[in-house]
């Protein structure tokens, strides 16, 4: 069976959207080697904003639009849906002469003749295939389940996108890269920071898995996500304690999801080769999250924030890496990558 779309077309689209996103980031970026100052509290409890650098808004806004378009294009290529090619249409039966109604009119719409096997097509090209009548979508799953998988993908996208969104938005506003993702709470970017954490938290609160452990882990993750969102790291001492404790606990629970919950398989069916691959991905993501937490703790324990190491903003990148590992594991859990073979 010939594929609906050639692999060269898919690769070309990937390259095009990657270049689009990269060019957009280049347009909105600021010199990362400039000294980044975090927001702090003055002696009179007035927040001191970090210094802004000059940036061309006429360049930054189109850059942000290009970044969004490139990221959306990549996302629509990564998400694949099962489709069957249409080889033709069955001729619809017609009303016989003298029958009630107009003779010769079809009794029903022509039925498509579908291929025996389905193939997975990028969501972006699925629209083109359906519009041209070349294929039809065959999910083979209940709509509620498909929606649940979509929610998992959305959570993964939000986790991956959080550090990117706040950093690029900060660049567009004229701020250099902050020492940590939490420092963006003190900027206008707090809307994205709090909003994404609330969305992830409430989804995890409603998340239901195989057994009670999934429910408890989801509820705890929601509680810790709200603690990070509601208590800034630049507030009072109590707020700082709640913020950092919630952040550490949140990453630990998310790592628990990847290491112990996502790797479970139903007792009735043995794991497929694709499931084994996904399990390896889940374990790797959980290990990355734990390693990032340990390195951040070591960074503060050794007080490296007062050394030249702080110039590269290691806490920001470690937090971003942990969030990317979390988001990627949920993106895979949404059966986006390494999907089981179609029947």
Structural class: alpha+beta
Main pleated sheet: 4 strands, antiparallel
Helical proportion, percent range: 55-70%
- The helix tally amounts to 9
Strand and helix map with partners:
Elements: H1 7-28, E1 40-41, E2 47-48, H2 57-78, E3 80-90, E4 111-114, E5 119-122, H3 123-131, E6 135-137, H4 143-173, H5 190-206, H6 212-230, H7 237-261, H8 273-301, H9 314-333
Antiparallel strand pairs: 1-2, 3-4, 3-5, 3-6
Helix pairs in contact: 1-2, 2-4, 4-5, 4-9, 5-6, 6-7, 7-8, 7-9, 8-9
Describe the structure.
This protein is of the alpha+beta class. It is built from nine helices and six strands, in the order αββαβββαβαααααα. It has helices at 7-28, 57-78, 123-131, 143-173, 190-206, 212-230, 237-261, 273-301, 314-333, and strands spanning 40-41, 47-48, 80-90, 111-114, 119-122, 135-137. Strands 3, 4, 5 and 6 form a four-stranded antiparallel β-sheet that branches. The chain has a two-stranded antiparallel ribbon with strand order 1-2. Helix 4 (143-173) packs antiparallel against helix 5 (190-206), helix 5 (190-206) runs antiparallel to helix 6 (212-230) and helix 7 (237-261) runs parallel beside helix 9 (314-333). The longest helix has 31 residues, at 143-173. The chain is globular, with a radius of gyration of 25 Å. The protein starts with 6 loop residues before the first helix and ends in a 10-residue tail after the last helix.
